C-alpha cells in the first residue's frame, strides 16, 4: 500500500513527460510521413546513427566494464576523485565534452597533432562521431554496472577463489553472469544515450551528410528548412528509443 496522495504528483509527472511526445504525434503530417522519412538525407542520418551508436556501445562495453569492476571491487587512494571524474560527462553540457575532445584529438590537439603526423585525422570524421557518443554514453554503463556489482556482493566470487579458481575464471564464470541484467541495462542505456547525442557530436565532428550528420543533427538542420520532415524524423527517433528501452526491459526481466 502507498499513500493515495502520491498518485496526484505521479500523474502530473507522467503527463509532463508524455504530453510532449503526444504533441509530436499530433503534429506529424501522416499523409506525407513515409515520404518525409525516406529521403536520401534522412536514410543516411538514420543508418549513420544506428551504426555509430552500436560501435560506441561496443567501446563502452570494452572499456566501461573493466572500469566498473575496478571501481566496485577494489579500493585505492583517490578512488572517489576518479569515480567523480569518470562520471563527469553525466553532468557536463555535451558541447563542453565536444570542445574537450576537439582539443584532445583535433588537428592541434593534445594527441591529434601526433595522429596527424601519422596521417590519421580524427576530428570531423565518422570516428569523431563514435568517440563523441562514447564519451557521453560510457558513464551510463559504468554507473549501472557498478551498482549491480555492489548489490550482488562478493560472496560467490570469494567462494570460487577459495576453491582455487583463477581471477580470470572467477570474472568470466561468476562475476559477469551474476551481473548480466545490469550489464544489459547499462549497455542499452549507453546505446540510447549515444543515439540521441547532439552537442558533443556537432562540436567535435561537424555535420556532413553521410559522414557525421546523425539523426539528431539532421532533425536540427531540418527544423529551420522543413518543419514537417523534422517532426517526422523526431517521431522516428522516439520510436527507435522506445523499442530499444522496451527490449532492454524485457531482456533484463528474463535474465533477472
Description:
The chain is built from 13 helices and no strands. With 256 residues, the chain is mainly α. The protein has a single domain, classed as MetI-like (MetI-like fold, Orthogonal Bundle), CATH 1.10.3720.10. Helix 3 (40-73) packs parallel to helix 7 and helix 5 packs across helix 7 (126-152).
What are the defining features of this structure?
MetI-like fold, 13 helices, single chain, 76% helix
Summarize the helix and strand pattern as letters: HHHHHHHHHHHHH
What is the terminal-to-terminal distance?
A: 25 Å
User: Which runs of at least 5 residues are low in confidence (pLDDT < 50)?
Assistant: none
Percent of residues in beta strands? Answer: under 5%
For the record, what is the CATH homologous superfamily label? MetI-like
What characteristic shape results from the CA principal axes? globular
Number of DSSP E strands: 0
CATH level-two architecture: Orthogonal Bundle
| CATH hierarchy, class | Mainly Alpha
- Major beta sheet summary: none
Helix content: over 70%
Helix/strand/pairing class, anyone?
A: mainly alpha
The number of distinct structural domains comes to: 1
Please summarize what this structure is.
With 256 residues, the protein is an all-alpha fold. The protein has helices spanning 7-27, 33-37, 40-73, 79-86, 94-105, 112-117, 126-152, 155-162, 167-178, 180-195, 199-204, 215-225, 227-255. The longest helix is centred in the N-terminal third of the chain and has 34 residues, at 40-73.
